[in-house]
């Protein structure tokens, strides 16, 4: 199970993200981007599934202005 965190960009803009951390040494880190519905239960379940397979996953909202 993951957790919600706050990230800070180089220009000091802050945004939230969901991190699914694996219980063993991670193989690699993944960034899971979702553009319109946000980091909803479905996206969190995908992040949790990958973290269960040994990945550290950062899921966050991505959009263009």
Précis, in short:
The protein is an alpha+beta fold and 65 residues long. It contains one helix and four strands.
Give the radius of gyration: 12 Å
> What is the structural class?
alpha+beta
Question: Could you state the order of secondary-structure elements as H and E?
Answer: EEEHE
Main sheet: strands, sense, barrel: 4 strands, mixed
Distance between the termini: 31 Å
- Show unreliable segments: none
Number of domains: 1
Helical amount: 10-25%
Number of strands: 4
Report the oligomer.
single chain
Report the portion of residues in β strands.
35-45%
Strand order of the largest sheet: 1-2-4-3
Average of per-residue pLDDT values:
80
Backbone shape: globular
Model description:
With 65 residues, the chain is α+β, with helices and mostly antiparallel strands. It has one domain (3-61). 18% of the residues lie in helices and 38% in strands. It is built from 1 helix and 4 strands, in the order E-E-E-H-E. Helix 1 links the parallel strand 3 (29-34) and strand 4. It is globular. It starts with a strand and ends with a strand. The mean pLDDT is 80.
Write the topology of this structure:
Blueprint: E1 3-8, E2 14-20, E3 29-34, H1 41-52, E4 56-61
Parallel strand pairs: 3-4
Antiparallel strand pairs: 1-2, 2-4
Could you list some keywords that capture this structure?
single chain; 65 residues; four-stranded mixed β-sheet
